User: Which sequence fits this backbone?
């Protein structure tokens, strides 16, 4: 009987130690994360993929963003430890906003269409609302110890990244030819804290937390 009790206690002790080690490891785990507005409207995504295909046909070294990953980034957070990410959720929950309309229009590039590294679609209507959310969110993130976002906020949706200067002139012509194209409008009803898992085939984004607009 005593032997059975000792064995049970040893088993319990091992389980407790294993759980503690798991919690410690989890506290040191880092998650590549960002805060964004996802583009989920099927008609808009179809126009964007058509645009990507047309730019790819220029022969430029362009890697299009996968349609399931297309979004407007409000704030890139980087590699964040899990306990701090929980605090980000709490702060994000305090950022209240009403749903609003966003209009996507025009193709451009950073740093410029002549020397493109990132190809984007502009956000015209709704840009001020997104800027307002960013402005309310930023001091909360600074309070958690995040460094200031030196780039600030520029409302856009990244649709491709340029890997080299191959056929740069043709890409420039393609971008300028779509500088005023309308891609449609959508209603922003939530902002999301996203996890980015990097893989050889490209990043996989998953939603960690969603802050919905107030009704």
Assistant:
């Amino acid at each position: 009987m005593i032997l059975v009790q000792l064995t049970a206690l040893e088993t319990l002790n091992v389980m407790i130690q294993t759980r503690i080690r798991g919690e410690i490891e989890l506290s040191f785990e880092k998650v590549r994360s960002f805060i964004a507005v996802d583009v989920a409207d099927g008609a808009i995504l179809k126009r964007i993929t058509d645009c990507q295909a047309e730019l790819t046909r220029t022969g430029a070294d362009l890697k299009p963003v996968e349609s399931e990953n297309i979004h407007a980034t409000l704030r890139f957070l980087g590699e964040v430890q899990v306990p701090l990410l929980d605090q980000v959720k709490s702060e994000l929950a305090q950022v209240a906003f009403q749903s609003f309309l966003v209009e996507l229009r025009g193709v451009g590039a950073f740093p410029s269409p002549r020397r493109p590294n990132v190809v984007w679609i502009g956000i015209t209507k709704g840009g001020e609302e997104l800027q307002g959310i960013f402005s309310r969110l930023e001091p909360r993130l600074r309070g958690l110890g995040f460094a200031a976002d030196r780039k600030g906020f520029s409302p856009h949706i990244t649709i491709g990244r340029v890997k080299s200067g191959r056929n740069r002139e043709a890409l420039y012509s393609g971008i300028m030819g779509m500088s005023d194209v309308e891609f449609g409008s959508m209603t922003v009803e939530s902002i999301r804290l996203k996890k980015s898992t990097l893989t050889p085939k490209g990043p996989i984004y998953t939603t960690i937390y969603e802050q919905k607009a107030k009704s």
